[in-house]
Amino acid sequence: MSNGLELSPSAAARVAAIASRQGKPAILRLSVDGGGCSGFQYKFGLADAPDADDTLATCDGVMLVVDSVSLSLVEGARVDFVESLGGAAFRVENPQAASGCGCGSSFSV
Q: How far apart, in whole angstroms, are the C-alpha atoms of residue 20 and residue 24?
């Protein structure tokens, strides 16, 4: 765990499954873009390798990488994978977020 970043075991398992199907390394990139209902939105994607300025967290052999620009907005965050009646999605539990939106994919600081 680095800079308080954490990847839950359920998120790690989901990333490993997706990466395996796509023939890619099990590396989940979390970044933050401007926009969304609350000002910023989370963006997820598979990465081929970590970049030099990335902060890393690992769980069960799966890596979570966050770029240096996004890190200040998600420091201390936990990435989880949640399945519910409404669907399945990666969810960020972000202590930096002052508020969020109903969909859970955007936040403000």
A: 6
